[in-house]
UniProtKB/TrEMBL annotation:
Molecular function GO labels: identical protein binding; L-aspartate:2-oxoglutarate aminotransferase activity; L-tyrosine-2-oxoglutarate transaminase activity; pyridoxal phosphate binding
Cellular component terms (Gene Ontology): cytosol
Signal sequence coordinates: none
Organism for this UniProt entry: Paenirhodobacter enshiensis
Lineage, highest ranks first: Bacteria, Pseudomonadati, Pseudomonadota, Alphaproteobacteria, Rhodobacterales
UniProt keyword terms in alphabetical order: Aminotransferase, Pyridoxal phosphate, Transferase
Domain of life: Bacteria
Keyword Lipoprotein carried by entry: no
CC cofactor: pyridoxal 5'-phosphate
Pfam families named in the record: Aminotran_1_2
Name of the featured protein: Aromatic amino acid aminotransferase
Length: 394
């Protein structure tokens, strides 16, 4: 039977991990997979996470199943407070504890098509490749909307709105809440307002993928677009990942937050339990407990926010250093967009051949579409990258 299986295309981002590991050069630079790394190239366990784990370990008396197939309400509420702010509309909220942010995105797609089997999912072009592969795997109809202006390396806002004019009532529109992956280009708050108006006029439902809250301008700032959408639209899905901002990648922790009319809330909460049950039954709990403990314990929360601020400021500083170095080398402002982008990623705008040249000549690993993980840099490698970019003729 298994002889019928066809080889699957590998994940190009994950493949880079092995390619980098196998490169013997000492001064190689890993700008591939989207994992935060400090100046020493390590991905440390955050202080508040360690302390929360210690407290959980001490207090835990059982490993029996948690209270609901959709996860613990206390986790949904803590995440809703983080994402939507303390005054979020409690009577409109349903929640699902998921396997990572990816699991939240996936369950969001499932909910949309349960509600409307004719739905079309609109995804930005470009987007995180897994959005598209998951939709294909589900045999779910999807269409791209233009997002990125390759010339200016900013959001192609007019093109985006023009494409979204074709959205039908009951379609699902996927938006990156902040720190767009792979480009680093994000809408302004005024543009978020226009997006909200368009979706409202079209009767479409947004699915906001929020995987990097706190990695751009700040926890509040990075949630501003999502909050605006949540305040203006009657029905909203938000897939929040805890992998990056809590640094708990391998715990696989995420949350799908759903806002509906209060009259639909009970059925929605039951539907969220239903989709988890059909997928894996109860969700994993350890990461969700860590997150909930941190968010609801003032001294842990303050320490987490302080460490997250250091992480964010480090990336912002690297962005400025790289833009400054390229300004010096090229005598132009052509690369200033790197300082304007937010989050871990920037799309440089190099050709695949130029990306290959930087890898061969300088040991610099970035994704083939020229997405760079800024957190892979440090003060020593910034000038190396800038020189390689210029030498590759970008
Ligand atoms: N969405 C985007 C845009 C991402 O970049 C990621 C990154 O991994 C995810 C979702 C999901 O993250 P995870 O499933 O590791 O929480
Ligand atoms: O885009 C990234 O690099 C991160 C990590 O299949 C990631 O989102 C990449 C590929 C993948 C899962 C996670």
């Amino acid at each position: 039977m298994f002889g019928t299986l066809k080889p699957q295309a590998p994940d190009a981002i994950i493949q880079l991990i092995a390619a980098f590991r196998d490169d013997p050069r000492e001064n190689k630079v890993d700008l591939g997979v989207g994992v935060y790394k400090n100046a020493e190239g390590r991905t440390p366990v955050m202080r508040a996470v360690r302390e929360a784990e210690r407290r959980i370990w001490e207090a835990e008396t059982t490993k029996t199943y948690i209270s609901s197939l959709a996860g613990e309400a206390s986790f949904h509420e803590a995440m809703a407070g983080l994402v939507l702010g303390a005054d979020y509309p409690k009577d409109r909220l349903s929640g699902l504890q998921s396997v990572g942010g990816t699991g939240a995105v996936r369950q969001g797609f499932e909910i949309a098509r349960l509600a409307n089997p004719d739905t079309t999912v609109w995804v930005p072009d470009p987007t995180w490749p897994n959005h598209v592969t998951i939709l294909d795997f589900m045999h779910q109809r999807h269409r791209p909307y233009r997002y990125f202006d390759a010339e200016t390396r900013t959001v192609a806002f007019d093109a985006m709105l023009a494409d979204l004019e074709q959205v039908k009532p009951g379609d699902l529109v996927l938006l990156h809440g902040c720190c767009h992956n792979p480009t680093g280009a994000n809408p302004t708050l005024a543009q978020w307002a226009e997006i909200a108006d368009l979706l409202l006029r079209k009767g479409a439902v947004p699915l906001v993928d929020l995987a990097y809250q706190g990695f751009g301008d700040g926890l509040e700032e990075d949630a501003a677009g999502t909050r605006l959408i949540a305040a203006r639209l009657p029905e909203v899905l938000i897939a929040a990942s805890c992998s990056k901002n809590f640094g708990i990648y391998r715990e696989r922790t995420g949350c799908l937050l759903v806002l509906t009319d209060p009259s639909n809330r009970a059925v929605m909460q039951g539907t969220l339990a239903h989709v988890n049950r059909q997928t894996f039954s109860f969700p994993p709990d350890h990461g969700a407990r860590i997150v909930q403990t941190i968010l609801t314990t003032p001294e842990l929360r303050a320490d987490w926010e302080a460490e997250l601020t250091e992480v964010r400021n480090g990336m912002l500083s690297l962005r400025r250093q790289l833009a400054d170095e390229l300004r010096r080398l090229t005598n132009s402002d052509r690369f200033d967009f790197l300082a304007g982008h937010r989050g871990m990623f920037s799309r440089l705008g190099a050709t695949p051949e130029q990306v290959e040249k930087m890898r061969l000549d300088s040991g610099i690993y970035m994704v083939g579409d020229s997405r760079m993980n800024i957190a892979g840099l440090n003060e020593a490698s910034v000038p190396v990258l800038a020189r390689a970019i210029v030498d590759a003729g970008v």
